[in-house]
């Protein structure tokens, strides 16, 4: 059974701080790892990391995949109150047309002004 | 505008009643998914469908049923056999294949009267 563990489960910081969210996984025949941001309702896609793309960056957000350690980190620099959300990590196994994602429980980030 | 539409936003179920949650997408995606989200639990897969007229059980399918008669529609029925239906339900779709980034609707919050 595939497994995704995120840490910490919740985090409170002040505006301007830098945060690092962690995601570790156990999956048969790993294909990709995805990060999503969920503010109120619909999770929105942030990054997808694969063996051929282990580092992604967009503005103040960046993510790295460590295939040796079976983990990924999501960094947010100079946090803003608008970064407050649940951050979800998900992994996809390879093999044929298997489209399933396995999600972690998420990290609830609260950024205070 | 392309996207995924879930309806209704809020739904109340009486004891012994079946209720159906709607999910429609106009992204021309092949694959569609239903997830359940409980507080602090992340997303758990209920059912998924990779093509029309075919669907597979996810991790928590008991008490739920689905159909996929059209590419753009994937309704979820919460049956009376689901004893703890109160949750936030998210529908997603993806183009499938190598990329398979899932995009989400805004969700339906189901409560029991």
Describe this entry's structure for a reader.
The complex is a heterodimer of chains A (113) and B (113). Chain A is mainly beta. Chain A has strands at 3-7, 10-14, 19-26, 30-38, 44-50, 55-58, 61-66, 71-76, 85-93, 101-103, 107-112. Chain A is built from no helices and eleven strands. In chain A, strands 2, 4, 5, 9, 10 and 11 form a six-stranded mixed beta sheet that branches. With 113 residues, chain B is mostly beta strands. Helices cover 0% and strands 50% of the residues of chain B. Chain B has no helices and eleven strands. Chain B has strands at residues 4-7, 10-13, 19-25, 31-37, 43-51, 54-57, 64-66, 76-78, 87-94, 103-104, 108-112. In chain B, the strands form two sheets. In chain B, strands 2, 4, 5, 6, 9, 10 and 11 form a seven-stranded mixed beta sheet that branches. Chain B is globular. The model of chain B has no long low-confidence stretch (mean pLDDT 92). Classes of the chains: A mainly beta (113), B mainly beta (113). At the A-B interface, strand 4, strand 5, strand 9 and strand 10 of A face strand 5 and strand 10 of B.
Topology (elements, then pairings):
The complex is a heterodimer of chains A (113) and B (113).
Chain A: E1 3-7, E2 10-14, E3 19-26, E4 30-38, E5 44-50, E6 55-58, E7 61-66, E8 71-76, E9 85-93, E10 101-103, E11 107-112
Chain B: E1 4-7, E2 10-13, E3 19-25, E4 31-37, E5 43-51, E6 54-57, E7 64-66, E8 76-78, E9 87-94, E10 103-104, E11 108-112
Parallel strand pairs in B: 2-11
Antiparallel strand pairs in B: 1-3, 3-8, 4-5, 4-9, 5-6, 7-8, 9-10, 9-11
Primary descriptors:
heterodimer; A: five-stranded antiparallel sheet; B: 113 residues; mainly beta; four-stranded antiparallel sheet
